Amino acid sequence: MIIGSVFGGLFTYTILSYLLVSSKITIPLSIVFPILIFGLTKYYSRSDIDINKLKGEYLSHSKSQKNDTPTRNAKKETSNVPGILFVAIFAISILISSFAYQQEFHIFINWNEIGSRDIIQLGSAIVLCFFLPGYAIVLIITKRYRMDPILKILLAYLLSILTTGLTAYVSALFFDKAITESKYLFIAVYLGILASFLIFYPRYRMSRRPNLQAKKFFHYQTLINTVIEFWKCLKIYTSELLVFGSILMLLVIATYYLFDGTTIGDQWYHQGRALLFMSGSFREAALSEAEVFYTPFQSAVLASLTTLSGIPLVNSYASIAFLNMTLIFAFYYFYLSWVPSTTQKAGILAASLFAISAGFGWIYLLNTVTTHPILSPHSSIETLAKMGPLDIISSSNFLITTAPQFSTGLTYIALPAGFVLLGIIRTRFHDAFTSIGIVTAVSVLGMVSHDEFYIFIIIASLLPIVFRMEARNYMYFGFILAILIVYIVDITGPSKFFSSNEKFGFPLILLSLSFVVISWTFYLSIPHLRKILQPRLTFLNKLRILPYHHVRFRFLSQVSVVSIVAYLYLLSFIVLSQLPIETIIDQTRENTIPWYLYPMRMGTVGLLGLAFILSFLFRKFEKEVFIFGILVAISFITGPYYDEHRFSKYIMVGMIGFASLIIYNILNQRFRNKPLVNSVLLGIIITSSGLSTLLYLGYNSLIFQTQDFINTLARRHFPSMSELHLFEILHDKIDIDSKKYNVISFLNEYNRLEDGVMAKIPAFSGLPYDKLRQSPLALNASTPDALYHHLAYSDARYIIIPKDSIRASGIVTEPARFALEYFKPIYEDDK
């Protein structure tokens, strides 16, 4: 059962070692991948009889413990435990955050300087911002019926973010309050939710006179029983724990371990806006149009987390990388909600493929290195950088990739909300009010987090029509209500963050509203249309006797379709192999993907998913699985109007759904109870699917090995301590409300691809990015008078003159010399 695991580990180690990736990354990845393969092999090699036997033993033991309960009071006391524990954790977290020690302002401090008290404060802030308030709301909603545990956790997570984020957003943009001064506003909101829980959820009220004998029984015997039950439960779900645990380990390596607990890339943009929220300057920046694009909701959440935790922003932001795992669980819930009960076991495999799958870039790389061997880390990084945009660097993976990067609003807020939304369409709640409330809350959170959430609204609007789902009017009403709420917030706020993205000259939010209204109208008219059209379409019954129903004709048509698809699939690789890499990259620059590149980007998952689709010609399967086909079709159709590179990731999600089903059918029907074959097959599939993702991590490791931050990925070079000190001084001195706060420097310092210092100022000093680029040529002025003109035009107050730029150019421009001689210096170091 370990052959496939050994193969995956050795192959991974061989490839990464050949590329001269540091053992710091190579060895952990070569351990995590085999664990994932082993967990999957163990899961799919167990027979249903063994699983049911373990579950039966667990349930019988649990039932016997309940029957052994000595008194009624003891039973009631036991039933109080979850509620008492939840209330205690909620109250303690509020108390810790209320009295959290607020340090002097630092954007980042070394993790070694963070003590146990800081860790406790950070933990309390995380559970308050991301779990406890939402869980209290979910418990109140579901006090009369049971909810799927995964859905309960996911809704608690989403509702907590919505509560925290909206509180910060409204406070900062409508009341012009600094988030650092609004800590007790958050405490009041959380106390209100806790009070509501105690009032409206009486199931967990404590008994005033607990029986002493029962209390003694609870303390000793129940503790032993709990340990026994936990051990039996662990034996049942060992395989699942191995799989999800290995995915979590992979995420830890790709985030905390690789980047040493700092922030990178797109995260800098969000943390810069969070600084504006914390200082109370975001409203002024929005009114002055220095911040007009992209929703700032996630930045408001980050500002809230930092304020409640009392530790620096970068530390608090980097600490929540583990929340990206919610994307895996959200997809897992969505998958289980739609696939038939007979194929539910494929969900573990689907979640694994979702976490690691990328394209065939690794094959292209191996073909390249046969003619251009790797001689040094620099040659390795040059090779990867040259062909990486085809797949490795710009892959179709959502979790571990460059765009979107981890811990951004799309990955840990909007995408989980989208998959939960698609899943709850198949869920029946106990009343329409609850259904509307949940759909509205999830939709509002998704829309204020990222514009790509609208693709989920489009898909969800079509599902009741395609699958003829009854009693789904609440869903359309919830969508309309959510869109109206977001639109009202948008038009009444200081800037149009949620309607700035336009397509065909109309805001995307209004186009989505129109689509929902049209879909709802069509959904309501389906019964009437059926009554009108059904009598007039009886002639279609005659088509059943046409020749295509003949067995031979049907077989020939099936073979023809398969042959055409196979020809086009192979042709794409032939075209790809004949084109120079420069030509391919040029054809993908405008966020487009040429047709021949799709098979390459979809990789093993795309090939297996295509095989499953073609199998429908020979064997019918449940219509519910076409949810993945709808996801693929909508993404493919709408991609050219948004971003084909980004929407190819949604196509990959659909193909993962199909691929996991065909792999499960092969394992379940062909190789049931054959661990050796399962191990080899899963080892090949997982390794070939995820190797490009591992190469991306290796590429990031090579960036730090070579210290090449210019010819590689932007915003990987975390500021030095001297730079951080400069940024903190700027943050303290700059007053955005004065409107004269801009900073200027040499032109090359604005280029984030060249690791310029000006590209870091928005992220680490909290200056609006668009304002900073208002006059990048100021120091190129020919005379001091021209310099003064640029300073006045750009509202500049400070000039940064890096000594490295002077040394590199060898000369000092006249304006720069004038500034050095006559302007008052506020900070200087060796850089």
Concise overview:
The protein is an all-alpha fold and 831 residues long.
Give the overall shape, derived from the CA principal axes.
globular
What is the overall pLDDT average?
85
Looking across the biggest beta sheet, what order are the strands in? 1-2
Query: What fraction, in percent, of the residue positions are helical?
Result: 55-70%
- Radius of gyration, in Å, reads 29 Å
Number of helices: 35
Q: Tell me what portion of residues adopts beta-strand conformation.
A: under 5%
**Main sheet, how many strands, which sense, barrel?**
2 strands, antiparallel
Low-confidence stretches: 65-78, 204-214
| Structural class by sheet pairing and helices | mainly alpha
